[in-house]
């Protein structure tokens, strides 16, 4: 059930049965010469819809732009600052908590969002508790990273080994190929690829990772792999969501 | 050309030819008993894609949540605060301006966003000018409201007269029916409908507009009307975008 | 009744009879070669006092500086940022609401304030509602632009036609001449005047409007016209205030 | 020379001769049963105009609302928060510094503003220095409290001794009587008056100072005294301003 | 009793007997060629511990970094901005007030902190009052400057006369020598020393006070003097704390 | 070399040889019935000093209060909000970067700080890059958690196995016992201990972890263990610091 395709009265009815909601969050950032700028949002959205269908959960609209400041030396990247995201998450949760939602399950497509999301959850809890709303202490937020699902990691290791890398990975590229086969990019990739450098500011990042990839070989990706990743993630996160919402 | 389906190198190439970008912005808010909560985002996104195709412009991912605080007494509504939106817009424009974009064309689906967007633009200009980036004084933002296109207003008047109202209108509902025919809602509407009250806070709003509609009769909407609105808006905004980007 | 010339006990007594208050808001910005920098504040203040007298309403001190960022390339302009104004308005309304005021009627002298004021009102409502003050949902803010009064527009059209323009207009200059006849400026104006350009940042604004006027010919202004504008605005806004406060 | 009664070209000419500006700052707060709510703003404004005339300095519009949070349990008080004032001062100084002003002389009518003003100056300096504007290190702000002028203190001591107190004092009431003789209030004052308590929050303040006075007997004030205070303050601050602006 | 060496259950027991807490606040800033960068924090911490022992009061961990923006042109200085400190103090007081503390006694080692602390207290009171916590109006904050104790001033005058100066003073240097005799610095000092200049931004400050001292001769300091200052301050502030906490 | 025991001229000399600095960051939060509230700050500070000695690095004063909002239902806990910490870190790094520091090595004693520190680093990088300081892209921040050192984890596993738990652990308690043997607490611990629950808000946390421990048995701690942890951490982090600063 998609929030955007529902009416407020349908949401009112839904709340009689469940106080859980799935919030896809991605990023708008370079993903190397062949990865889509929307990769992280596309993956999070597709998997969220899959989990929503499997669990009859409500799915919020996708947060398309996340914390990608270190990618901003590449054109096309858009990033919020952490302090902005903290306010955004607080606003989302506050509105939905007012309506009766209690369990916020963020399906996340971007590693760079994790730290800021956790900071935002802490800020949101204290915000709600201080307002002394009766329900404040019942609000719970969780971040679920599809790319860290046990089966996903296992599959990526089997298919790509070392060439999975850590950004613009074949696994995420495969998933976008499965979802948007019409947008598969074929561009020659240099054999050398930046690898193993710590992440600091944007200028530094581009210096160390000149084509945007981090140790990955996305040329290995296929839409068929993408489907496998999709199914593994949906299955695992569906169980995880149900466990969360029923705890 | 959709930013989310492009690579950073494609964006780099695009910037050689154009410094313009289209940014769809909607809202996630109640639209009466039959209107979709995502109405404003859905309409802005569809029309943006249409304008993008017609003008070969780059289209950013949709800003799904806007300024809908006055709707938050209805479940399912999510709103950012104006102060949050100001930061969000500043972050978007700053990132894209750094990459070389100069003309930001926001295609907007929600009247409640207009004031805050204008405030955000002002805040963004001074932010960029103070940093003394060479390009700061070239950055220009514009908001284009599809529902205020001359042809759209004319058509709505012809089709619905007084029953167009000002929220959960048949014209926007028709447009969503055209885009998502599978999500057409049929629910009996009360004959009486709130009308003509000024907008203050959320509690007050729900008191005056008990089912969420503002003077509208969305039962008049059809997908065929929706197509007409779509075409009128795409045509008019395409011209407007080209004029903006070439000025 | 002027707040600044009252005691707190007089305010306490006033609140027994009315929960309304008038807040003049202007701007401190260039108004072309002959317009006073204080034009918008002067006009808002004078008309507010007139409305206060006509309706026995309390009048707050004038907010002299508003949202005039686009004028800051001209010396003498002072502007708050939208994010600052949002905090200022929230602070004003919160203090006065705590004392029992419920109806906030901002008489505004500057078009550039409107969007930010609306954003500020929304931010203030949610701020008060979240604190769960009993009275939060009764607080109502309204912005009344004297220069958009029906009679004012009509009179400006009759007197100046096209030469009214949209900034440093003869109507507002006339009004300041009526209020401060000792500060009438006589300076030759160039025949050419910037006109019809959209407003972006401050540098851009000055480039397009080199002497600060926007399509106006303030040389047409006379103090006698000013008096007519004053009387028309006071009359119309007095009715509007009473309607608001009694609704 | 009043900024509000000048044109931008007159300001441009002024800047050729001086980079100094006087900014009156007051407060909108209870001043006991006979003191005007606008006392601090009225005094600061009148003295600023006097100093401006004596020194040919430009005088900005009055900041009517300051830091009076501890008075907000009395109706009619309006206060900004310190964090808001910091932004307001930063905005004022930034705009004026951009135009070429370097010496900011705040003539202050309210003791409660001093700490926040100092904090705001520090925040403003670092803000300007970080932007690396060439002129940043030349910007200087100073707060001058008329009620702490040597001659003012001496006169108050001679006229009122212990009954001067520290809020709603006869000296400031006298000054408003001189400026607005038509607004002299005559109300019996209780013989007992709160005195010597430290200042914490608003509720606590009203508990300790039930009629708003702090150890003062404003019944001693006369308009003639007011004139003496006015003249002493204008003389002393004129010298102080010239010293500042010429240093 | 040091908070950092206590358990939460010991704090719980303490709160049965007292709702007071001592919070040392210093600064991390240059103190001339022989003064320690930690001088203000070291002094505040040592004296706080002494007062805590004498009065059986709980002592919080030291706030090591304060408002020292004007010293930031000297390497080693770290400063928070006033707006940051306001948030820090609000967070501290809010957490401790939630646990039951009511009396917050800040023992301060740096003149530059005073204004910002006062602003922060005001901001904190209104924050707590608006949340309508029952205890909000009982929260009281006070700043106690050890260097302004009557006996300390007297002693400094006797020992150093004019050479005490106002920054990097022999009295504070003596106190650090008493606490850290192993860190006594011996460096020749120029005979000339900056003196009497007002404080503006950091660049200006270093221009006027080239070696960081303000009119002081810290070569006069001895550890024995330091002990005298320590004892005088602990005695006076112990009385002051008890008076505060029992009022 | 401790920043607090140095002069600014010593720091100036240090910068000729190194641009690295160690910043200890802890927390002020409950650590169960026998753990010190200052545990995380005490450990971070002691290890930082050890690393500073071993590597001749400068050590900043300890950040005593971190992100411990989830512990605030236990008395004695003090926490900053994530948004406050972001500002604090930005202020620290900005000041020190201005003086020439480039490598910021945060030795951290509290798991709850990690996410917020990462967010703060990102916010700081973009802040510095936008100001276009020449050195901005050279600034690098890193967080090093002593409790996650390989040898520390191994030792904790050997000594305590499952009873190490994840908060108020015997390893951190042991370390504080080594540093402050005079503050060893002996209190009977319940056999049952909360374990394995996710962390949400403060009220929820105390409900699930009633005595503050998370699956740990701190009764196993001894000062001798503490010394072993200390030495292991100092050794490993010294290497890590040198690698960082020389990279």
UniProtKB/TrEMBL annotation, chains A, B, C, D, E, F:
UniProt organism field: Dulcicalothrix desertica PCC 7102
Alphabetized Pfam families for the sequence: Creatininase (PF02633)
Name of the molecule in the record: Amidase
Listed cofactors: Zn(2+)
Gene Ontology terms for molecular function: hydrolase activity, acting on carbon-nitrogen (but not peptide) bonds, in linear amides; metal ion binding
Gene Ontology biological process: riboflavin biosynthetic process
Keyword list, A-Z: Hydrolase, Metal-binding, Zinc
Record-stated family: Belongs to the creatininase superfamily.
Domain of life: Bacteria
């Amino acid at each position: 059930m998609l929030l955007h395709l529902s009416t407020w009265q349908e949401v009112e009815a839904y709340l009689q049965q469940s106080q859980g909601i799935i919030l896809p969050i991605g990023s708008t950032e370079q993903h190397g010469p062949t990865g889509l700028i929307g990769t992280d949002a596309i993956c999070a959205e597709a998997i969220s819809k899959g989990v929503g269908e499997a669990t009859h959960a409500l799915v919020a609209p996708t947060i398309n732009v996340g914390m990608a400041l270190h990618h901003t030396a590449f054109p096309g990247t858009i990033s919020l600052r952490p302090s902005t995201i903290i306010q955004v998450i607080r606003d989302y949760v506050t509105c939905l908590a007012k309506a009766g939602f209690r369990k916020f399950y963020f399906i996340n497509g971007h590693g760079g969002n994790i730290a800021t999301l956790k900071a935002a959850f802490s800020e949101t809890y204290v915000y709600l508790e201080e307002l002394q709303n009766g329900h404040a202490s019942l609000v719970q937020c969780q971040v679920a990273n599809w790319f860290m699902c046990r089966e996903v990691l296992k599959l990526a290791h089997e298919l790509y080994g070392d060439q999975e890398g850590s950004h613009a990975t074949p696994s995420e590229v495969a998933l976008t190929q499965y979802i948007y086969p019409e947008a598969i990019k074929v561009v020659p990739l240099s054999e050398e690829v930046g690898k193993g450098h710590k992440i600091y500011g944007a200028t530094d990042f581009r210096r160390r990772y000149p084509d945007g990839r981090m140790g990955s070989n996305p040329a290995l990706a296929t839409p068929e792999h993408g489907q496998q990743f999709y199914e593994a993630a949906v299955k695992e996160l569906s169980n995880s969501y149900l466990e969360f919402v029923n705890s």
